[in-house]
Structures are given as structure tokens and as C-alpha cells.
Amino acid sequence: MPAIVVRGSNGADLLEQDDVDERDGTFFGRMTLGAGSGIARTFSIHNAGTALLRIGGAALGGTGADEFTVLARPAPLVAPGGSTTLTIRYRGTREGTAAALVVISSNDPTERPYLFLVEACAEGAPRGQVQPSRF
Q1: The whole model's pTM is what?
Q2: φ, ψ (nearest 5 deg) of residue 67
Q3: Domains (range + CATH), the chain
Q4: How many CB atoms lie within 10 A of CB 25?
């Protein structure tokens, strides 16, 4: 049977997580509104089972999902003991906190789908700087 395990940047299993944390990469941090290309985080997806893990896709849901983008999708097949990665970017185009639910579909019968939260914050321009007008 396949067994999906998703780990954050510190190697911690993200299942049963009820909050975001900078240590595991689920809290992307704070950035200046619209500055740069955003903040990206990579999560590893492991197959801890004994059969081939089929990943149907990774999607983002929730009210803040439009502030996040899937940059790199996981491989569709993961052998037992193998792994793949999922990279998500926070764009920071709206001031305030944005949160999204990451939904990974697979053939793991016990984690269908696998869910975890991500969150980040964009703040206004630093003092003394003026945001350009948008017409």
C-alpha cells in the first residue's frame, strides 16, 4: 500500500499540523508589498509505503489561495522509499496576511487528500517610500 508523507523544510511531517510555522516552511514570512518575485518554499513528498504512490496533483484552496502559486509540481509517480518535491510561491500582491490550504491528491487510501496550511504576510512600503499609482 502507498503511504504519502509530506515534510517541511525542517524535515517535520506536516500531517496533524494545526498551525503554520517558520521552522517547517509553512509560514513563508513577511515581505514588502509587491517587492521582488515573492517568497518560495519547497516541500518534500515521500512514499513511506510498499507500493507505487500516484500523485494526482497539487492544488491551492481557500480565500488567500490567489496569493500563492504552485511553481513546481510533484512527479506523478513515486516509488516505495522515494520522494519528489512541491514548490509553492507567495506573491505578496495584497497587503495583509494570506493563507491557503494545500491539497495533494494521491492513491494513499488513508490520506485522501493530504492537506496542510501555508501562510504569509505582505506589508506596505517602508516609511519614506511612496507606492507607485496604478491607473
Answers
A1: 0.88
A2: -85, -5
A3: 4-123 (2.60.40.10)
A4: 22
Q: For residue range 60-87, what is the model confidence (pLDDT) as tens digits?
A: 999 999 999 999 999 999 999 999 999 9
Strand pairing partners for 31? 122
Which of these, 94, 89, 95, 96, lies nearest to 68 by C-alpha position? 89
Q: Give every strand in the sheet of 4-7, ordered side by side.
A: 4-7, 39-47, 83-90, 68-72
Listed as ranges, residues in the chain with pLDDT below 70 are: 16, 125-135
Phi/psi of residue 7, each to 5°? -120, 145
Task: Tell me the three-class secondary structure of the chain, residue by residue.
Answer: CCCEEEECCCCCECCCCCCCCCCCCCEEEEEECCCCCCEEEEEEEEECCCCCEEEEEEEEECCCHHHEEEEECCCCEECCCCEEEEEEEECCCCCEEEEEEEEEEECCCCCCCEEEEEEEEEECCCCCCCCCCCC
